[in-house]
Design goal:
Blueprint: H1 7-15, H2 28-44, H3 69-82, E1 88-91, H4 98-107, E2 116-120, H5 126-134, E3 135-136, E4 148-149, H6 151-154, E5 159-163, H7 170-182, E6 184-185, E7 194-195, E8 199-204, H8 208-213, H9 219-225, E9 228-231, H10 242-253, E10 258-259, H11 261-269, H12 275-289, E11 294-295, H13 323-341, H14 346-353, H15 357-366
Parallel strand pairs: 1-8, 1-9, 2-5, 5-8, 10-11
Antiparallel strand pairs: 3-4, 6-7
Helix pairs in contact: 1-3, 3-4, 7-9, 10-12, 13-14, 14-15
Length: about 375
């Protein structure tokens, strides 16, 4: 049980073998269900001895900010997969923080003392990417004046992170499939196999299922990479984390900086199509322009676009989700906005919504806010 549902607490709890954890204030019916599940789980595994390897802590883990239910789920997954060598696919829109998840997995694993090698597959031309990944021998091609060690070799004993994996060309997909299966490869211009001991983590903002259906991505490679999936939620689906993120970015830019409730409310109402990265850039600009470190509405510059997926309008609600689900979504959004506008004061939030404080408390509990 904790009042601090930050990433470090959550990851450490799950990594150390906790079945689950709960946040204050306690929802007792939910707590009882969790205890029942834990007891059932223990009965099933009572004859198995579990060992957990504790990884090396990293300051990068602290960069994952948020206490929303969606982020609590992410922290639990990180804690669980970090103790294994399973291949992980991190999915999510651009700017959601996929690389931070990769950092957390590596630095909480038994490979934390080994290298963490990162490659952005979309940023390297196709003609050079094969050499970048697998290396080459001297004379393998024009301008290959010396032997080059590839990223797979550099990551031996550690973790290799391949970002934007969905952008690989079919020939490279075939070569990657073989390496994933056999953990061995040859440098360009060589027939000598090289074996590596790595943990592979990939990430994509692309819909790989559609790419497989369209023939742009190999289905066998997709299944090899998609052993464990961690899907980062867009910021618009975890708006309650915005105040904590804003505070984090303010402190990073200026330890004495602060923000007015009106400016924070303005940030909370925006849809953030660029996700956390866009929020960080907005705060960085605001801190530069703020007088005496106080960020007001005038320093918050938001460029709303037609592609803004804010989801606050009823015409954006998916009808197929059903009446109850959509009403719950609108209700939760209203509660979050009222709390933001009230600066966290529940009595004031109840007044803004025109409801009794007792009803507000019931709604907050039902939506786990």
């Amino acid at each position: 049980m904790t009042a601090h549902g930050d990433s470090g607490t959550a990851i450490e709890a799950m990594k150390s073998g906790a079945f689950d954890y709960v946040l204050k204030p306690i929802d007792f019916p939910m707590l009882l269900r969790q205890i029942e599940r834990a007891l059932e789980h223990r009965l099933l595994l009572k004859e198995l001895k579990h060992t957990r390897t504790k990884g090396v802590e990293s300051s990068d883990v602290g960069a994952i900010v948020g206490q929303s239910p969606a982020m609590q789920h992410i922290y639990k997954l990180i804690g669980q997969v970090a103790a294994s060598d399973a291949t992980v696919l991190v999915r999510g829109e651009s700017g959601t923080g996929k690389e931070l998840v990769v950092n957390a997995i590596h630095f909480n694993s038994a490979r934390a003392s080994g290298p963490l090698v990162k490659v952005n597959c979309a940023a390297i031309p196709d003609a050079l990417l094969e050499s970048e990944l697998f290396g080459h021998e001297k004379g393998a091609f024009t301008n290959a004046v010396s032997r080059r060690v590839g990223r797979f070799e550099e990551a031996n004993g550690g973790t290799l992170f391949l970002d934007e994996i969905g952008e690989l060309t079919p020939p490279l997909q075939s070569k990657l499939l073989r390496v994933v299966q056999e953990r061995s490869f040859e440098r360009l211009g060589s027939n000598e196999p090289i074996s590596v001991n790595i943990r592979l983590v990939t990430a994509t903002s692309r819909n790989l299922e559609e790419a497989v259906q369209e023939g742009d991505f190999r289905d066998d490679l997709y299944y090899r990479l998609n052993v464990v999936t961690i899907a980062m939620p867009p910021l618009r689906e975890r708006r309650q984390d915005i105040p904590a993120l804003v505070e984090h970015f303010l402190r990073r830019r200026n330890k004495s900086a602060s923000i007015t409730p009106q400016a924070l409310a303005k940030l909370a109402e925006y849809g953030w199509p660029g996700n956390v990265r866009e929020l960080e850039n907005t705060i960085e600009r605001a801190v530069v322009l703020a007088r005496e470190g106080l960020v007001t509405e005038s320093e918050i510059e938001i460029r709303a676009t037609s592609s803004d997926p804010a989801g606050s309008s009823s015409d954006r609600l998916p009808l197929e989700a059903g009446w109850q689900a959509n009403i719950a979504s609108v209700e939760k959004s209203m509660l979050q906005r009222a709390l933001q506008q009230a600066g966290g004061n529940k009595s004031k939030a109840a007044e803004i919504l025109g409801i009794h404080r007792r009803l507000l408390y019931e709604k907050l509990r039902s939506h786990q806010l």
